[in-house]
Write a structure and sequence with these properties.
The structure holds two protein chains of two kinds. By secondary structure, chain A is of the alpha/beta class. Helix content of chain A is 35%, strand content 25%. In chain A, the strands form three sheets. A six-stranded mixed beta sheet of chain A has the order 6-7-8-3-9-10, sandwiched between helices. In chain A, helix 4 runs parallel beside helix 6, helix 5 packs antiparallel against helix 6 and helix 6 packs parallel to helix 7. The longest helix of chain A is centred in the last third of the chain and has 18 residues. Chain A is globular, with a radius of gyration of 19 Å. Chain B is mainly α. Helices cover 74% and strands 0% of the residues of chain B. In chain B, 49% of the residues are buried. The chains are: A alpha/beta, B mainly alpha. At the A-B interface, helix 3, strand 6, helix 4 and helix 5 of A face helix 1, helix 12 and helix 13 of B. Chain A: It is an enzyme of class 7 (translocase). Chain A: It catalyses: an R-cob(III)alamin(out) + ATP + H2O = an R-cob(III)alamin(in) + ADP + phosphate + H(+). Chain A: Keywords: ATP-binding, Cell membrane, Ion transport, Iron, Membrane, Nucleotide-binding, Transport. Chain A: It comes from Natrinema gari JCM 14663.
Chain lengths: 285, 368
């Protein structure tokens, strides 16, 4: 035990924010090498990844940079070839599936569209890890579901079937399901992609509210760098399966990064607030 | 709007038991009525002629219904107490056929519904997945070659079904399965097992056995008696019970593999376990009634179209609709097409076109 404590202390001292105050990490990926079972090719190599506690971290990068793969490893959907992922200092492997689902909520990018399930029923499925095989829902389940529905702002459509909702409403329903899981950490894979602006903001505001009120740690893949720069506390920029840079948006987002990682020429304004203004695509490198 | 009035309703606790809808209740009641009516018609006609009144009087004869010895003889095979000829004909010859129909109808419907959720494939059924032909081959081999093992038929059928299912899955597996690949693998395995079944005919000693075997391959309730009820009732109750209890797991599986895993389900294990239950359920039916085609495929569709896709409702609906349709189909086979006509002929003749209609009506078919 003493040794893990020591390790934890070491982690703590490793990262500090601007004022030199130590930041604790909810999720840590260590010496990760990731590949899919169908091929030998290593997709992601990452010596160290930190998802700081009680903050929102956005993973950004172009298509195919390995963001989703990395998120899959963090959520135990993909077993790393080498390296470990720890949540609150404990190895993911030491959890059984349900225990992990009580610690970590995950929303995948593609959610199979089920037509004939009501929003409320879907949200109740979020309580799965808290219930036994034969248990009915109890008071705590009802409360968690009500809270999740309220937080996602979907009271008005709770009895509507999923098939009749717009893409944005569907996404909010799925997010409510993950919220009902009542976890300290959330991993979201592109929750705003394909949504109209209104629903993009509603999704992001829901996440922000959850983070501020409940101190939930969030790691979210955002495909829009301008949005990520404004929204997240920390950015993780991925490029070609490697971690390009990590830190608060003001430090990470530079013209260099936009050129190197995203292949665009852009101007960046830091005052009054961080703003990315992409101009044109750079010729292929 | 409907949403507004239900908000107040949801504030009350215990609302979550509200998955029982009016439609479901009506559907189940209607199914029960159909089962009873079809059952009564079934017991009223036959070679031993009785008036409707006599037959129904025999069915509801309190001296039989409340006679423990009679039930012991039915269910445990003890000596039958004396009863009138009418009672014997109705209770010993005709009613068990209805009961076997009820059991096979319920188990096949439940089995199909579970398979459709586990594979997330609308086209899945015990037949498509090879379970029917595998179990069928095992049973046929038992009947023709090892006739002494008859009491263990459900078990033997389960072994055969499990083996065939394993082969189908192994063929279709390529880092996951797709509905089309699964169906194709099923077709292949079915063909192999059907050839094996036909090959077995040449080992049969006499024509009588061959005729039984053919009727059996088509799926027939002809000549089923209390013995079949005895063999089937316990594994049927067990498998249906587990399937009903597992309805919520099936609902979560329907959310997709990734989501189910994120929610803390050990997906492979649950899938495996519930597939086992579905194989058992199908094998029970196959052991006593043979391969009734299309039944496990079509009934869950009918139920789904009526009560919706929530498996808690769907499963209950299947348990009621399966018997109703099976007993009705059997009555249809026996009374309109001739006394020896296997019920599988009727289910095939009706189920096939119905499925064709579904295919035409729905834009896409395959993944659930």
């Amino acid at each position: 035990m003493a040794r893990t404590q020591q390790e934890r202390d070491r982690e703590r001292t490793r990262i500090t924010d601007d004022d030199g105050v130590a930041i604790e990490s909810a999720l840590v990926g260590d010496k990760l090498e990731l590949s899919y079972p169908s091929s030998d090719e290593t997709i992601v190599e990452c010596a160290r990844l930190d998802i700081p506690e009680e903050a929102i971290t956005a993973l950004v990068g172009p298509n195919g940079s390995g963001k989703s793969t990395l998120l899959k490893a963090l959520s135990n959907h993909l077993k790393p070839d080498t390296g470990t992922v720890r949540i609150h200092g404990e190895d993911l492997d030491s959890f059984d599936q349900k225990e992990l689902a009580r610690e970590l909520g995950v929303l995948s990018q593609e959610n199979d569209s089920l037509g004939s399930i009501s929003v409320e029923d879907l949200v109740y499925h979020g309580r799965y890890p808290h219930r036994g095989f034969f248990d009915g829902p109890d008071e705590a389940d009802h409360r968690a579901v009500e809270r999740a529905i309220e937080l996602a702002g979907i009271e008005g459509i709770r009895d509507t079937e999923l098939g009749q909702l717009s893409g944005g409403q569907k996404q909010l329903a799925w997010i409510a399901m993950v919220l009902a899981q009542d976890t300290d950490a959330l991993l979201l894979d592109e929750p705003t992609t394909f949504l109209d602006v209104h629903h993009q903001f509603r999704v992001l505001e829901t996440i922000r509210q959850l983070n501020e009120e409940k101190g939930v740690t969030v790691a979210v893949i955002l495909h829009d760098i301008t949005q990520a720069a404004r929204f997240a506390d920390y950015l993780v920029a991925m490029h070609d399966g490697k971690l390009y840079d990590w830190g608060p948006p003001e430090e990470v987002v530079t013209e260099q990064l936009l050129a190197d990682v995203f292949g665009v020429e852009a101007t960046i304004e830091y005052e009054p607030e961080l703003q990315v203004l992409p101009k044109r695509a750079l010729p292929d490198r | 709007m409907a949403g507004a009035e239900s908000v107040s309703g949801h504030a009350t606790t215990g609302q979550r038991d509200g998955w029982v809808t009016g439609t479901l209740v009506v559907f189940c009641l209607a199914s029960t009525v159909v089962t009873i009516v079809a059952g009564l018609i079934q017991v009223s006609f036959g070679e031993y002629s009785m008036t409707l009144f006599e037959a129904w009087k025999a069915v509801f004869n309190p001296e039989v219904i409340f006679d423990l010895n009679a039930w012991a003889s039915f269910l445990f095979g003890t000596a039958r107490p004396d009863m009138s000829t009418d009672s014997i004909v109705v209770w010993d010859l005709r009613l068990p056929r209805v009961f076997v129909g009820i059991i096979t109808g319920a188990t096949l419907a439940v089995s199909g519904a579970v398979f459709q959720a586990v594979t997330r494939n609308e086209l899945a059924s015990p037949f498509i997945l090879g379970v029917s032909s595998g179990a069928g081959f095992a049973v046929l081999a038992t009947l023709v070659v090892f006739s002494g093992l008859a009491p263990f038929l459900p078990l033997i059928a389960t072994l055969g079904g499990t083996f065939a299912f394993g082969v189908v899955y192994a063929i279709a597996w390529k880092g996951g399965t797709s509905p089309v690949r699964l169906v194709l693998a099923g077709v292949i395995v079915n063909m192999v097992f059907q050839s094996l079944q036909q090959g077995l005919f040449f080992f049969a000693d006499d024509l009588g056995v061959v005729q039984t075997a053919i009727a059996w391959i088509t799926g027939s309730l002809t000549g089923t008696g209390w013995e079949e009820v005895r063999i089937a009732v316990l594994p049927a109750l067990i498998s249906i019970g587990i399937a009903l209890a597992g309805a919520r797991q099936l609902n979560v599986l329907m959310l997709g593999e990734n989501t189910a895993r994120s929610l803390g389900m050990r997906v492979e294990r649950v899938r495996f376990f519930l597939s086992g239950v579905a194989i058992l359920a199908a094998s029970v039916a196959i052991a006593v009634a043979g391969v009734v085609s299309f039944f496990g495929l079509v009934v869950p569709h009918i139920v789904r179209n009526t009560v919706g896709g929530d498996y808690r409702r769907l499963m209950v609906g299947c348990v009621f609709a399966g018997p109703a349709l099976m007993v009705t189909a059997d009555v249809g086979a026996r009374l309109t097409l001739g006394t020896q006509m296997p019920v599988g002929v009727v289910t095939g003749l009706i189920g096939g076109p119905y499925f064709l209609y579904l295919m035409r009506k729905q834009q896409s078919m395959g993944e659930l």
